[in-house]
């Protein structure tokens, strides 16, 4: 990341830091701010459709093949539909904290801006992370500037929303946003996610969910990859592991119960997947939480 972009992100981080204790004001801008002062273990988070950025510090995100990708302010993540993410904070910055921002995407604005731009002809899906540009950073900085001047938000927020959406459409993540803007495509992916979420324990196959969404298996797989970067079955695994960890750690249930509750037929298979995601077997994760 160049010096200009870095300086803009630092300004944005200062604004976020001042208002971290005022979530209502941030929410009025469709923004969620996060802060921690120490590294964290692997955590499951289900992101809504949003732009996710690190403003200060660094994190690692687990990719679909259980490989970790490290990133910070130089990168951003686009989630055009609800996306299950497994990640951990690995480094607090010089100010002694890790700061993150999630900005909820407005589907109507995404479609409006996408429709005003030339059709994106790139066939390959983009990398999981986008590269933060000075233009994106500047729009985010001005968005967070409205935290200091909420009286200006009714006039400026719609303008900044369209500008930031445009900057993202001009980025290397444009294919993912354009795919989401094709309403029918996003609808079939969202419908599949709703089916998965409503019945995690079902023995799903790709043919099952494609039939329920009234598309072919090849079409649904392609749309999932374009919009989420995951296949439908990889997405389902993420949902299952996140819910299993919640059941295990918040309800105090056994690993076998958690596995069964989300559709795993084999305890050994569940333990392998859980360890790959969270770096400890479920039994050790439960003991560690009990000691904490």
TrEMBL record:
Source species of the chain: Microbacterium aurantiacum
Keyword Cytoplasm included in the entry's annotation: no
Pfam families documented for this protein: AraC_N, HTH_18
Entry annotated with the keyword Protein transport: no
InterPro entries per record: Homeodomain-like_sf, HTH_AraC, Tscrpt_reg_HTH_AraC_N
Gene Ontology MF terms: DNA-binding transcription factor activity; sequence-specific DNA binding
Domain of life: Bacteria
Domain HTH araC/xylS-type: 190-288
Protein name: HTH araC/xylS-type domain-containing protein
Keyword annotations: Transcription, Transcription regulation
Annotated coiled-coil segments of the chain: none
């Amino acid at each position: 990341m160049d010096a200009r972009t870095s300086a803009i992100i630092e300004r944005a981080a200062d604004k976020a830091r001042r208002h971290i204790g005022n979530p209502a004001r941030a929410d009025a801008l469709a923004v969620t701010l996060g802060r921690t002062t120490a590294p964290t273990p692997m955590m499951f988070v289900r992101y809504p459709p949003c732009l996710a950025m690190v403003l200060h510090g660094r994190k690692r995100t687990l990719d679909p093949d259980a490989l970790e990708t490290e990133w910070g302010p130089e990168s951003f993540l686009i989630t055009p539909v609800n996306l299950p993410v497994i990640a951990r904070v690995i480094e607090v910055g010089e100010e002694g904290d890790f700061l993150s921002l999630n900005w909820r995407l407005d589907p109507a604005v995404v479609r409006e801006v996408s429709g005003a731009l030339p059709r994106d002809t790139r066939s390959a899906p983009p990398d999981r992370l986008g590269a933060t540009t000075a233009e994106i950073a500047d729009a985010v900085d001005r968005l967070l500037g409205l935290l200091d001047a909420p009286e200006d938000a009714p006039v400026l927020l719609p303008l900044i929303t369209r500008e930031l959406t445009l900057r993202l459409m001009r980025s290397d993540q444009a294919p993912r946003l354009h795919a989401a803007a094709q309403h029918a495509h996003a609808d079939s992916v969202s419908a599949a996610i709703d089916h998965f979420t409503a019945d995690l324990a079902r023995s799903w196959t790709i043919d099952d969910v494609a039939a329920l969404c009234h598309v072919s298996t090849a079409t649904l797989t392609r749309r999932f990859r374009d919009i989420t970067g995951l296949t439908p079955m990889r997405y389902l695994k993420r949902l299952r592991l996140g819910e299993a960890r919640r059941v295990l750690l918040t309800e105090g249930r056994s690993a076998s119960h958690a596995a069964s509750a989300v559709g795993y037929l084999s305890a050994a298979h569940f333990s392998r997947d859980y360890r790959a995601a969270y770096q400890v077997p479920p039994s050790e994760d439960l003991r560690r939480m009990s000691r904490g």
